[in-house]
Amino acid sequence: MEPKRIREGYLVKRGSVFNTWKPMWVVLLEDGIEFYKKKSDNSPKGMIPLKGSTLTSPCQDFGKRMFVFKITTTKQQDHFFQAAFLEERDAWVRDIKKAIKCIEGGQKFARKSTRRSIRLPETVDLGALYLSMKDTEKGIKELNLEKDKKIFNHCFTGNCVIDWLVSNKSVRNRQEGLMIASSLLGEGYLQPAGELSKNAADGTAENPFLDNADAFYYFGHRRKNWKVRKFILREDPAYLHYYDPAGGEDPLGAIHLRGCVVTSVESNPDVRKSEEENLFEIITADEVHYFLQAATPKERTEWIKAIQVASRTGK
């Protein structure tokens, strides 16, 4: 019986011979990680066994390169991967850690927080609920919280989430709130912050979400830091890679375009008035939102048309 596929997607991998960073199609199995040059390839370029391996995240070995994690095998071989954004890296890290833990304990990998496993009613619109939670007036208040001499910015506690769901009449009781919060966590609308909530999300607690004043969380899909980047659009694979405009051949990250939606944006509440011209938004298939700004209206239209083609025809 073949090992079960747990997660797959494009990551940027550092080569072991020439030390160059290249996009690879990565497949996480129950017992290892396979990586392919392209999604359509039948044979992997390599395989990393997970038994006895250790995982380091975040990995700070490469200065400006963000969202990197490292896997070290029993033979002391290091493998470096870079995700396109924080939530993507954390999702890979959680699943890899859990896979390693399952191997050590002789268990089968099983998710706790999917819509099906917790029997979330199909009538619940998690996306709409997420937007209500983020409402600046009636939503959950983001705070700067401190624990073990560490400051967590733009966070809130687990019990605050359940309190809000109950008071907002989104759920009938705290147990039902726990179920909804677990699903929001599983879908990436909420992210764990701090060891307690991360360990629960990794599967070491009875429930992936904690109704606890010591468990910290923050909203997923945060994209509010504006920076100048050089972009290169590719169709195979369908990615928009972005680079440091000052130079460097290696991408800082990427936006997966297959199945995405792209539209022009006339106003954005996260942006100052002076920055509102020529904006467009990319919403990925995983419902991650990116706001980009072109230099002119004509350039914005050209980018939107090109990205729309890549989203339909790219691999």
TrEMBL record:
<feature type="domain" description="PH">
    <location>
        <begin position="183"/>
        <end position="312"/>
    </location>
</feature>
<dbReference type="GO" id="GO:0005886">
    <property type="term" value="C:plasma membrane"/>
</dbReference>
<keyword id="KW-0007">Acetylation</keyword>
<dbReference type="GO" id="GO:0035556">
    <property type="term" value="P:intracellular signal transduction"/>
</dbReference>
<dbReference type="InterPro" id="IPR001849">
    <property type="entry name" value="PH_domain"/>
</dbReference>
<keyword id="KW-0677">Repeat</keyword>
<feature type="domain" description="PH">
    <location>
        <begin position="4"/>
        <end position="101"/>
    </location>
</feature>
<dbReference type="InterPro" id="IPR000591">
    <property type="entry name" value="DEP_dom"/>
</dbReference>
<dbReference type="Pfam" id="PF00169">
    <property type="entry name" value="PH"/>
</dbReference>
<feature type="domain" description="DEP">
    <location>
        <begin position="136"/>
        <end position="221"/>
    </location>
</feature>
<dbReference type="InterPro" id="IPR036388">
    <property type="entry name" value="WH-like_DNA-bd_sf"/>
</dbReference>
<dbReference type="InterPro" id="IPR037370">
    <property type="entry name" value="Pleckstrin"/>
</dbReference>
<protein>
    <submittedName>
        <fullName>Pleckstrin</fullName>
    </submittedName>
</protein>
<dbReference type="GO" id="GO:0030036">
    <property type="term" value="P:actin cytoskeleton organization"/>
</dbReference>
<dbReference type="InterPro" id="IPR011993">
    <property type="entry name" value="PH-like_dom_sf"/>
</dbReference>
<keyword id="KW-0597">Phosphoprotein</keyword>
<dbReference type="Pfam" id="PF00610">
    <property type="entry name" value="DEP"/>
</dbReference>
<dbReference type="InterPro" id="IPR036390">
    <property type="entry name" value="WH_DNA-bd_sf"/>
</dbReference>
<dbReference type="InterPro" id="IPR037371">
    <property type="entry name" value="PLEK_DEP"/>
</dbReference>
